[in-house]
Amino acid sequence: METRIEYDSMGPVEVDARRIYGPQTQRSFNNFKIGDHRIPIEQIKALALVKKACALTNAKCGAVTEEKAKLIAQVVDEIVDGKWDEEFPLTVFQTGSGTQTNMNVNEVIAHRAKQLDESNPLHPNDDVNRGQSTNDTFPTAMHICAYFEITKRVIPALDGLIKSFEKLQKKGKGLQKVGRTHLQDATFIMVDQEISAFVDGLKTAKTMLVQNADYLLDVALGGTAVGTGVNTPKGYLDVMETVLPKVTGAPFRVKNNKFQGLSLKDAFMMAHGALNTLATTLFKIANDVRFLGSGPRCGYGEWHLPENEPGSSIMPGKVNPTQCEALAMVCAQVFGHNTTMTLCAGSGAFQLNVYMPIMIYDFVESCRLLADAMNSFTTHCIDGVEFVPEKLKFFVEQSLMIATSLTPYIGYDKSAKVVKEAYKRGCSIKEIILEEKLMTEDEFAEAVRMK
């Protein structure tokens, strides 16, 4: 590999000549060969937007020249467009503040700017990182990244699933079925009523996502090293208050408690908590759907799920609820991420949390997995569900819990006795009622009719 010599405050470093990053990136690349987990490119792009906002703010405050600010902004636009993705190779398992990644972005911007204009060189620290610390830029980028992952990736996928279930709900209108509690037969319910729980549960999860994403709009930018704002130019936050929303296209807020923003991750946890709640709802739905579609002959079999691929390497004709299983596994992964992030959020010390790279990695993966799984579940499962009316009718006719509707007429004790007798003899409740002349046929029909 051809190399070039670069220098930082610790001395010379051999840097891969093909790359436009610098010595601190190379040191991190050499020193942290831990796993294949890379800082998400979404975080890199968010961090680049922070650099653009800082450059424009610094220029307005007189801390850097207009020319340098424009150069930084130009390179940031290239990074956001995906032109330099390969220049950000660093692992998640580095310093807990994300310092090496912050410097990675600073170095790429400085080196690329030199290619664009050699007459106006940028220093990665003095110019690109002017008035900043990793301690405020990295968590700010986390909030920007997380906000857009929720609003632009997760919510559209969730909306699609909600619409699919709403269509299925309409299709199930007028179909009666047996309800189930404790995995035992319960009183009757309509198919559309059962599905309404899924629809409203997902809508509630969306509301929680939107509400909790608002906490992410408060960012730590301007706090620099420990929250005091050391080295920021005069009037920095007043200018940034206008610049950051313009650069990001979202109403991020900078006038807040920086000490909280650096040392605590409560807003981040609230946002992921909403993702975890969504995963919990999806986990329940996935399990219900695969039970309702179980069979085809020896299970519940009330729903016919789309047959997408063979289900067994040994059993001919077997088809499995694979979309449900995939979604359930994604939910399990999100639960694990939430546990990891809970530990990380509570483990910061004094003025800084030092678990940030793994937190943003898990957050982005949770969003990506949930969105992908919901899209897949919608397209390859729920959109193609068909009900099995004959199976629904069979269970209704066989149900012993129809006796619940008889208690206003014959009382609880007599109803319980009828249930036991019907179960013992393997016949229907109606047969026992009419045989013992406890009710007329018309009275029975009125009692069991869905109100």
Helices and strands, in N-to-C order?
Answer: EEHHHHHHEEHHHHEHHEHHHHH
CATH superfamily of the largest domain: Fumarase/aspartase (Central domain)
Query: What's the total helix number?
Result: 17
Q: Averaged pLDDT, please?
A: 96
What is the number of beta strands?
A: 6
- What CATH first level of the largest domain would be assigned? Mainly Alpha
Query: Radius of gyration, Cα only, in angstroms?
Result: 30 Å
Basic shape: elongated
Please summarize the sheet with the most strands: 2 strands, antiparallel
* Overall helicity: 55-70%
Subcellular location: Cytoplasm
Keywords: Cytoplasm, Lyase, Tricarboxylic acid cycle
GO molecular function, one term: aspartate ammonia-lyase activity
Active site: 182, 312
